[in-house]
Fold this sequence. Notes:
Blueprint (H helix, E strand, L loop, with lengths): L30 E2 L5 E2 L5 H5 L2 H18 L4 H4 L4 H15 L11 H5 L6 H17 L4 H11 L3 H4 L3
Antiparallel strand pairs: 1-2
Helix pairs in contact: 2-4, 2-6
Protoporphyrin IX containing FE binds next to helix 3, helix 4, helix 5 and helix 6.
Amino acid sequence: MMKYALMLAVATATVGTPQLAWADDAAPMATSRDSTVPVITDDMALFESFGGRAGLVKIMDDVMPRWLANAKTRPFFENADQTRIKAQLVEQFCVIMKGPCEYSGRSMADAHRGMNVSEASFYALVEELQRTLNAMDVQFRAQNRLIAALAPMHRDIIDK
Ligand code: HEM
């Protein structure tokens, strides 16, 4: 069984970029039903605090240009099917938040295999996502719960 245990520290100073850290030995904060999509809540409050499905669509529309503008993430996305990725992310985030969706995409390991995603690129992607969530005034607590669910995925995504 996959264990989603992490210790997460997110510091958003007024200047500077958010810092993330996680450790494998921390107490579990999230449970998983399969290795692709850990469900982090049993009610729909979190999903609603992101504006439901329409909110998630807006988030992806806002964050993709940020990923395309960031030198650490642009090379991966510029020639990719951005429309599909956004749609898959909406589904995936919706499931993570126990929304009324199903994820039809690939596992994180399959989707990112052979891409040579570095730790720096992973951090950059998460940081741009946090910028979007801040811009959209998603509550900080809700942001943290999402980021806490995404952080353990680094094991399946980062190659080097
Ligand atoms: C927690 C972090 C991440 C999550 C939740 C995530 C999620 C996803 C999802 C749901 C897909 C679609 C899978 C499918 O089409 O079946 C995808 C594809 C993709 N991801 Fe990620 N991803 C993450 C990190 C990254 C990073 C760090 C990069 C590069 C900097 C990246 C680059 C890509 C690319 C280029 C694709 C398209 C692959 C293809 O079309 O073959 N992802 N990701």
